[in-house]
Amino acid sequence: MRVQSVLFFIFIASTAFAAADSTTTSIATIQSDELSSRVVIADHKQVKRSLRRYIPGELDSANEEDRGALDKVDDVVTKLDDVAGKQKKLTPKWDALVKKNLEQLSTMGALAKKLSGKYEDAYKLSLPTLKQLDEIEKLRVNDIATYTKESGKSMRRVIEPFDGIKIAPKKFLESHVGRDLQRYDPVDGSRLLSASVVSRPKNQGGGDVLLISSSNPNKGDWLLPKGGWDKGEDVKRAAMREVIEEGGVNAQLLHGLGKSKFSEGDKKYTYYSYMMKSSTVYDDWAESARYRIWVSYDDAIALLAKRPHMVKVVENAKKIDGKVKAGKLPEADPKMRKFTLDL
Questions:
Q1: Which residues of 154-188 are buried (b: 16+ CB within 10 A; e: fewer)?
Q2: Please, are residues 209 and 297 in contact by the beta-carbon 8 Å criterion?
Q3: Residue 341 lies in a domain
Q4: Can you tell me the mean pLDDT for 312-330?
Q5: Where does the signal sequence lie (predicted)?
Q6: In the listed set 124, 157, 176, which residue is the last one of a domain according to the structure?
Q7: N or C: which end of the chain has fewer CB within 10 A?
Q8: Domain end position, chosen among 97, 124, 151
Q9: What is the CATH number of the domain that holds 312?
Q10: Poorest-pLDDT segment among 149-163, 223-237, 313-327
Q11: Which range of residues forms the domain containing residue 159?
């Protein structure tokens, strides 16, 4: 909804310039029933322009609900005017910081507006995620209808070799495509699947969650790496295999995220979900025609909104991660260490 987008930008405008050191900057504290934040007073006219420029929809077509949100923008603008009249000076250091934040706000707004036609929640996403999506949409123009999942080879993009290229192990360079070996629950007949939330350490670029695109580049869907649990295959190793085949990542198991059941139409599924951490990110892998992005938990939840069963898996991973960071759980469950892939 446009209201949510407007409120998002009110939040950005009221917090982007929060000061960390009140002794070296000119700061005013604004308090009201709707807004309580510490705002660095800078070029408030530019802030006003930024607020209004990227509100989705036209003002003259706003419905009653939208106009209520736009009134909130006016409230913020008025407060900025009031504070600007009291504080006029900024040190060069903070002046540069304000300009940087304004540039980021402007970039976020422009990208969100550009991508909102394909991504309903574009205005909720962070700048790093928006930048990744923008680059991918440029690639998608040429990739639509080029790749299909008729065979493992057809999903593999042709990548010209380069110095330092990392290619997935040969045994994982063709994805599983047959369904004759798949498992089904003997009680409810649901298809048994693995699903994974894979994080990437900061020294590899960071990211709480690996998302991959649908095997059909025309769909524009984002998914967690998932796949069939074949007969004769351990589900944990199946999860690790799928992460390599679909996402091009060799990952270590950290924690189990439980079992969940869901239905799509008349089809039933059971997920066995796991939390993993990347050890190697390959440049060339079985399904390299897929796009992949590394995003925060919150951005993953927004992009998976149409797949509530995957949202629950990410939410569980976020809770586990919180316990790990709080020292309530080890980074990795010792029981998971024995599960590795023969590369």
A1: ebbeeeeeeeeeeebeeebbebbeeeeeebeeeee
A2: yes
A3: no
A4: 98
A5: 1-20
A6: 124
A7: C
A8: 124
A9: 3.90.79.10
A10: 149-163
A11: 127-336
Residues linked to residue 37 through DSSP beta bridges, in sequence order: 30
Tokens standing for residue 75: 């409230």
Structure tokens at 264: 């799509």
Q: Tell the residue number behind the tokens 């995003």, with chain if given.
A: 295
CA dist., res. 39 & res. 272, Å (int): 46
Residue 101, pLDDT score: 76
Count the Cβ atoms, other than its own, within 10 Å of residue 25. 21
- Cα–Cα nearest to 281, from 253, 334, 244: 244
Question: Is pLDDT of 307 > 50?
Answer: yes
Residue 157 DSSP one-character state: P
CA 128 from centre of chain: 9
Phi, psi dihedrals of residue 230, rounded to the nearest 5°: -70, 155
The whole-number pLDDT of residue 155 equals 80
Task: In whole angstroms, give the CA distance from residue 6 to residue 177.
Answer: 45
Identify whether residues 233 and 308 lie together within a single domain. Answer: yes
The full DSSP string for 282-337 is -SB-TTTTS-EEEE-HHHHHHHTTT-HHHHHHHHHHHHHHHHHHTTSS-SS-GGGT
